[in-house]
Amino acid sequence: MSDNRKWLPPMHALTAFEAAVRHGGFSRAGEEIGLTQSAVSRQIAQLEDMLQTPLFDRIGRRVRLNDVGRAYAEDLLPALDRIRRATARASARPTQTALRIATLPSFGMRWLAPRLPQLTARHPDLVIDFAARSQPFDFGHEDFDAAVHFGVPQEWPGVAMDFLFREEAVPVCAPHWLAAHPLRTPADLLHVPLLSQSSRRDAWPRWLAAAGVDAAGLAPGPAFEHFLMLAQASAAGAGVALIPSFLIRPELEAGTLVIPFARPMSTEQGYYLVYPPEALAGPLAQFRDWMLDQARSA
User: Do domains 98-165+269-297 and 169-254 have the same CATH topology?
Assistant: First the structure.
């Protein structure tokens, strides 16, 4: 056996070790990779035998990553992620210019989708598959080339981020609802149903505070996972919603939603295009440049 082969552990042992590190034990690791707990234990033992040192401390029926295992994982896991990404890029795709992009659902429907004809005109050979994702994920374990993220850079470490734009959220309601529930000042909102997006339940208290209204004791109203669900509920007369204006331009132009108070609210959060730093080349670079151009002209 050559020296190079000597220091290359079996991939199945490395896979078991990585899963055990991420899950903090052998049982859940086995569930993920399709092995029994004892089979994972044997794979780890094979790796420890090769290294001639334990990687986990056995405490009764529990295991805990030790200092050697922790140091090994810090070096090994990024390398395995790079192998996954390299394999995904090299694997067969429908075309050599195909990309998979994860996007926030409402952003994809209202900002990306209407602009796709311009992307096709600029890069007719570029094929994009879009999928909905609302939370940061590990590019090493998901087959995506890039994603659209809303928040702050610190929320998604280890990726490259290109700032796209910030949003302005505005209060909106149905015109027939407003006729039946006149709103003369922002303080009147304390006495009507306030609809929220489920991940931004603090939006109404912040908007009211900016409008000079004491929102202490404000009762939470109905919440919806996606902004377009929120817009539909408000247009149906369920109450007043706080929604980024760029997501509801069709409803505002059609008059199915109106703005009772012209007080837009912005935050330090923004929309970003995120991707593994080493992946920026070819089709992804073309898509990135187009996204940045669109964001600048929006």
Answer: yes
